[in-house]
Amino acid sequence: MSEKIDWDPIRALARRVIREGAPLVLDDDVRALLRRTAREVGIGDANAEQALSTDEGALELLRESSRRITDGSNRLMDALHRMYRHQKAGDFDSARQEMRDVLSVEVVPHYREVAEGQLEDLEDEP
């Protein structure tokens, strides 16, 4: 993914709708935001379109997109922290394993790219 990702709009929408209980109004802008975000979090176009065909489906798409962003971010940040700790201790095998563990479960392309980049950076280490 070469384009810059901006998840602030989807986070704001999720906060209003999921946490504060505001209605999800499916206008063209919200549909476009949900489609774009679905792609960015690894949800296929066909699944996103099917979800957008009903209000309930759109709400579930918002929930799932928000969950993937949050869970993936938490997983990656925790793993990066552990990886840096292993690196500092000179344990590069464990540092690499932290990123492999992320890659074994992560579905969000952006987070996968970060983990892959970290793993590549560790290739030159013992």
Spell out the key features of this protein.
mainly alpha; 6 helices; 126 residues; 0% strand; elongated
The major beta sheet can be summarized as: none
**Could you list the spans in which at least 5 consecutive residues all have pLDDT below 50?**
none
Helix content: over 70%
Summed up, the helix count is: 6
H/E topology pattern: HHHHHH
**Overall radius of gyration:** 17 Å
Rounded mean pLDDT score? 96
Please, could you describe this protein's structure?
- With 126 residues, the chain is mainly alpha-helical.
- The protein has one domain (8-121).
- Helix content is 74%, strand content 0%.
- Helix 1 (8-19) crosses helix 4, helix 2 runs parallel beside helix 4 (55-88) and helix 4 (55-88) packs antiparallel against helix 5 (92-105).
- The protein is elongated, with a radius of gyration of 17 Å.
- The chain starts with 7 loop residues before the first helix and ends in a 5-residue tail after the last helix.
- 25% of the residues are buried.
- The model has no long low-confidence stretch (mean pLDDT 96).
Topology summary:
Elements: H1 8-19, H2 28-40, H3 45-51, H4 55-88, H5 92-105, H6 109-121
In short:
The protein is mainly alpha-helical and 126 residues long. Helices cover 74% and strands 0% of the residues. The longest helix has 34 residues, at 55-88.
